[in-house]
């Protein structure tokens, strides 16, 4: 079944809920460390073994940098300065917006569609990032995994979001680039869009009569 078929058969959407990383803004650890490691092979090894996405995800789950950074520096003392840069220069891993999504957010806001977000994002990193992105001023509420110490795709974060946003899951459209998150939300009754690019999202939103 296509997303267009889903949109035609589903109830009207009362609110749209976005993921943040790789949906609204780009996120890539390579964007940070390519500025600090000149050798491409060394850069690949560092991102595969030292500051990996898997290691990073514990911050999304709520672990503080004051614990994780010293632990990693003790494990890889030769990279202590680069691991410190991960904490200090994290915003360099967010090089800009995903093309086209911000314009869709603005169009939804212009039609007074309630907007929310659920993001796997470290609490300390969110505190750094949020003031830099005024687009989130259009959002009624944002559930940040690192603050709540619960992550997608686990059901409790979706239950918390539904309670805070004030809409039934079946009346909300959840947009995420991660298939596991989409599948989890759909199993809990949310309407979903598996994000690939803004053009496909635009078509889905049009089909649903939201823009």
Layout: helices, strands, pairs:
Layout lengths: L2 H7 L5 E4 L10 H5 L6 H10 L3 H8 L4 H11 L4 H9 L12 H10 L4 E5 L3 H7 L11 E4 H4 L6 H11 L6 E5 L2 H9 L3 E4 L3 H10 L4
Parallel strand pairs: 1-2, 1-4, 2-3, 4-5
Helix pairs in contact: 5-6
Notes on the structure:
GO terms for molecular function: hydrolase activity. InterPro entries: HAD-like_sf, HAD-SF_hydro_IA, HAD_sf. Keywords: Hydrolase. This protein folds into two domains: 3-26 and 96-207, Rossmann fold (3-Layer(aba) Sandwich); 29-93. Helix content is 48%, strand content 10%. The protein contains twelve helices and five strands. The chain has helices at residues 3-9, 29-33, 40-49, 53-60, 65-75, 80-88, 101-110, 123-129, 145-148, 155-165, 179-187, 198-207; strands spanning 15-18, 115-119, 141-144, 172-176, 191-194. It is elongated and about 55 Å long.
Gist?
α8 links the parallel β2 and β3. The chain has a five-stranded parallel beta sheet with strand order 3-2-1-4-5, sandwiched between helices. With 211 residues, the protein is of the alpha/beta class.
CATH class of the largest domain: Alpha Beta
CATH superfamily of the largest domain: HAD superfamily/HAD-like
Shape: elongated
Q: What is the string of SSEs from the N terminus onward?
A: HEHHHHHHEHEHHEHEH
For the secondary structure, the number of strands is: 5
Strand content: 5-15%
Can you tell me the residue ranges where pLDDT is under 50 for at least 5 consecutive residues? 1-7
What integer value in Å does the Rg equal? 18 Å
Per the CATH scheme, the topology name of the largest domain is Rossmann fold
The average pLDDT value, as a whole number, equals: 96
Q: Provide a count of the helices.
A: 12
Strand order, sheet with most strands: 3-2-1-4-5
Q: Which second-level CATH architecture of the largest domain applies?
A: 3-Layer(aba) Sandwich
Supply the helix-strand structural class.
alpha/beta
Taking the sheet with the most strands, its summary is: 5 strands, parallel
User: Helical proportion?
Assistant: 40-55%
Distance between the termini: 22 Å
Pfam family, one: Hydrolase
Keywords: Hydrolase
Protein name: Hydrolase, haloacid dehalogenase-like family protein
Organism: Pelagerythrobacter marensis
